Amino acid sequence: MAQRPAESGSHIRDFDRGDPDALGRLLDYYRPRLRRMVGLWLDPGVRARVDPSDVVQEVYLDAKQQVESYLEDPRVVFYVWLRGLAQQRLTKLHRRHLTAQCRSTRREEPLPCESSLVLAQRLLAGWTSPSGALSKRELRRCVQRAMEKLDPNDREVILMRQFEEMSNQEVAQALGLSESGATMRYGRALLRLKEILLADPGLGGLSR
Q: Is residue 188 over pLDDT 90?
């Protein structure tokens, strides 16, 4: 059997030892992360008809059927493999429920509030507004608008790192990049996002 990439947690070790119940525990361990990922990328037009939890359940059924193939050639960590199955499910759902004419964009749906606020505060640290302190709601709206203006590749890597809370290693594996390449892409994307934020009139003319 090929050597599998390093994985944290006791569940994957039990899985390796042949524990028949380990797969279920491993899937439960990743359920919150996977549901967050599905909720982020599921089109709002589809969400009205499909619950993210149901998508996650279908992904788990796929995983149980395909896990042996994964173990034969485990090129990525287990979560990245699960996330790939989820992406396949989302693609099928979007093709089934949306037409080219009525397809909405993922960015029409608000991004997670706390993550948006943390990102805004990080990028705008040290800047002040002549109009006074901005409210949390205003900051989140500014991040929303800036994300909509980003190149899709830049938006994707920021969503993965900031909103899915993926590690650099996971992002690199999911995008087929080296870890240094993933780091560079993320850094460039943050710089571009900051540029867009600073040009947003809603921030009231930030200054040092």
A: yes
